[in-house]
Design a protein that fits this description.
seven-stranded mixed beta sheet, three-stranded antiparallel beta sheet, Aspartate Aminotransferase, domain 1, alpha/beta
Length: 380
């Protein structure tokens, strides 16, 4: 199998596994046990992981709350900012991950929060004037993802921050696909969510950056049950997972520039070959501002489900992993203006650290062959 679905998840780096292993048995202490060395060792490991992740995203370790993943972090942020407010208004974008859209819909349904969902252009970029015009006196939160999980389009976070933050509005960014793939710095946001399994760490652990200090954000706890993590999230900490996230952050920081430089020409070659050999194929997203290893290709008049079935030995996806089982066209592509037919004809390819030039060339040949088979079957 050739794996080209790294935006869905990544394998845990062997060095990360080795860092985690002692915390399952040898160093099994509860970091909240402050009266003995077992607890101290675990607490020190959590602190070290906070420092490693903080170094990757430009955050103070004390501003990081570890969660079960980005989905929990985003729910914590959205439900926390809007909690106990008088008719709060939130603004987000139609191309956001379902974790953001569904959390916003939940507070709208259950807590009377007003919600504006902005459209994007064909590249997936939001109109900054439309964003500015959407802000109201009661707007408390703007949520814009750093990099789109399907198309790779990277948002102009600094420009968005210049519009939003001077008004005293909290800016949240879902940076799940950006952290470990692009330089990410929390300087322009108030809240930022990420997940370890997107950058070669373990599943089941993520983090929420919460700006502290003057002009910082205070969130009520989404999970009660203890005073862990400075009373911001109750529950015994997943020490092995957190250690793994910290180790993955260290590796990502070390290899970031090198991997970007390696993956961009691989991605570009993949696109060039597919567009040359598959008539009518087009690339979606903002080709001038996107992730270095992500491409979304629409194969005109082709059923992407049949194309992927014909591939057999190449793992790709038609949408985000969270939505692919629904059978519905990608809400991201629809929000960008693609028709149902084109959305159903789209495949996402996402490269990773293990992807080689030889492997990608082989995958390209297999995709072209599968496309020819599906096109011929459709024509007949």
């Amino acid at each position: 199998m050739i794996y080209l679905d790294y935006n869905a998840t990544t394998p845990v780096d062997p060095a990360v596994v080795q860092r985690m292993l002692p915390y399952f048995a040898e160093h099994f202490g509860n970091p909240s046990s402050g009266s003995h060395a077992f607890g101290w060792t675990a607490a020190a490991a959590v602190e070290a992981a906070s420092e490693s992740l903080g170094a990757l995203i430009g955050a103070a370790p004390t501003d990081i709350v570890f969660t079960s993943g980005a989905t929990e972090a985003l729910n914590m942020a959205i439900k926390g900012v809007t909690h106990d407010r008088q008719r709060p208004h939130v603004v987000t974008v139609g191309t956001e991950h379902k974790a953001v859209l569904d959390a916003c819909a939940s507070v709208k349904r259950n807590a009377g929060v007003e919600m504006t969902v902005l459209k994007t252009d064909r590249t997936g970029q939001v109109d900054l004037e439309a964003l500015e015009h959407s802000l109201r006196e009661n707007t408390v939160l703007v949520a814009v993802m750093w990099a789109n999980n399907e198309t790779g389009t990277v948002a102009p976070i600094a420009e968005i921050a210049n519009i939003v933050r001077p008004r005293g509005i909290t800016l949240l960014s879902d940076a799940t696909q950006a952290v470990g793939k692009l330089p990410v710095d929390v300087a322009n946001v108030d809240l930022l969510a990420c997940s370890a399994h997107k950058f070669y760490g373990p599943k089941g652990v993520g983090a929420l950056y919460i700006r502290s200090g003057r002009g910082g954000v205070r969130l009520p706890r989404l999970i009660d049950g203890g005073s862990q993590q400075r009373s911001r999230r109750g529950g015994t900490l997943n020490v092995p997972g957190i250690v793994g996230m910290g180790a993955a952050a260290e590796l990502a920081l070390e290899s970031l520039s090198e991997e970007m430089a390696r993956q961009i020409p691989l991605r570009d070659r993949l696109e060039t070959d597919l567009l040359r050999r598959c008539a009518g194929a087009v690339v979606n997203g903002d080709v001038s501002s996107r992730l270095p290893q992500t491409t979304s290709v629409t194969f005109a008049n082709t059923d992407a489900t049949k194309l992927m079935a014909a591939l057999r030995t190449v793992a790709v996806s038609a949408a985000s992993a969270c939505q692919s089982a629904s059978g519905k066209p990608s809400h991201v592509l629809k929000a960008m203006g693609l028709s149902d037919a084109d959305a159903h004809a789209t495949v996402r390819f996402s490269l990773g650290r293990p992807t080689t030039e030889h492997e990608l060339a082989e995958a390209t040949d297999l995709v072209v062959k599968a496309w020819q088979e599906v096109s011929l079957a459709t024509a007949n």
